[in-house]
Specification:
Chain lengths: ~120, ~220
């Protein structure tokens, strides 16, 4: 689960970076980085018996926010919308409205942060 | 102290994600009162000499740059344009030919980088249920160089059939798109970064909204 959250964050960062390369964005589904990293990261963790600490997840989220702010010139609209559109594209969810996709992304992070803290306390 | 810092950081993160989740507007769920339908998405008005196409706004391109204005949703580039058309490129081409418009057919993949599209000059407008007026393409798609669009009937029926991209309207001169912008040669957007095109979210309705795109010969 923790590996999946780290992978999801990494995938989102890679998707945002890839999406800023117009040539690639016009030819490929850059959102695919998200499901790919979400599934590959836990697999990697199992294979190498690696665990991640909460600070890694927190730093990943901060990195994601910084990447979004820098690439989209501090456009708050883009900050809200781009992760939603990339998530929708990556998971082939064209039936999802961007608002729903955005809520899913937020729920993942909200739940992920709370779950991690709750697990630490236990 | 460290535990408090982590808790604060977590709460801040949670608040940020909460804020972001509710910030994206959605299209109204009520169906738009547009006469075109998904089953019959294209209309040729021989009296007005215009072709109208039903399309859907792709809000992703309010924030990302693209070289496609209108692409058929079933084409390989269907998700790469400001507007996703329900009408396909072949029907669009045939509709323009029905109006006796002249296609340029001068573009190829080999000459694309150095050639401007030719063909009859066209006026493109966009409107939707509740819109204040019919907006010109210049108003709803932003050119970073602020050049008024020069949309021409490129033709390219053979290439369109071969490559199956679904492109109806391209924002630079294109050997596959049925209609292209003659201001720029192929590669201006993605290869040479000469220009940035984005949908204008200050005017266009939200992602998923239905719009009608009208194309007619420029008078």
């Amino acid at each position: 689960m923790k590996g999946a959250l780290i992978g999801f964050t990494l995938g989102l960062i890679l998707a945002v970076l890839a999406g800023s390369w117009v040539w690639l964005e016009m030819r490929a589904n850059v959102g695919f980085f998200i499901p790919a990293a979400t599934f590959l990261c836990p697999a990697f963790c199992l294979w190498r018996r690696k665990t991640f600490t909460y600070s890694v997840f927190l730093k990943g989220q901060v990195a994601l926010l910084i990447v979004l702010l820098l690439i989209y010139n501090f456009d708050m609209g883009a900050l809200c919308a781009v992760p939603a559109y990339l998530f929708r594209e990556g998971f082939h969810g064209n039936g999802l409205t961007p608002a729903t996709a955005g809520l899913v992304v937020c729920s993942i992070y909200l739940g992920g942060n709370l779950l991690w803290i709750f697990n630490r306390k236990q | 102290m460290r535990r408090n810092a982590i808790l604060c950081a977590t709460l801040t993160m949670c608040m940020c994600w909460c804020m972001f989740g509710f910030a994206i507007p959605s299209a109204d769920s009520a169906p738009a009162k547009i006469t075109l339908t998904k089953e019959k998405p294209i209309l040729v008005d021989e009296k007005e000499k215009s072709v109208s196409v039903l399309a859907q706004v792709n809000g992703k391109y309010f924030f990302q740059t693209t070289r496609h204005a209108v692409v058929y949703s079933g084409g390989s580039n269907g998700d790469k344009s400001v507007f996703r058309s329900y009408a396909n490129d072949q029907d669009f081409y045939n509709a323009l030919m029905k109006l006796s418009l002249k296609a340029g057919n001068n573009m190829t993949k080999e000459n694309g980088a150095k050639t401007f599209v030719e063909g009859d000059l066209l006026d493109v407008t966009v409107t939707w249920e509740g819109a204040k007026k019919e907006y010109s393409l210049d108003e709803v798609v932003l050119d970073s160089n602020k050049k008024p669009f020069q949309m021409r009937f490129g033709g390219n029926q053979k290439n369109a059939l071969q490559f199956k991209t679904g492109c109806l309207l391209c924002l630079d001169s294109c050997p596959v798109g049925i209609v292209s912008n003659a201001n720029y040669t192929m590669g201006a957007v993605e290869m040479r970064n000469e220009v940035i095109f984005k949908g204008n979210d200050k005017i266009l309705p939200p992602d998923g909204s239905l719009v009608v795109i009208k194309v007619k010969a420029k008078s």
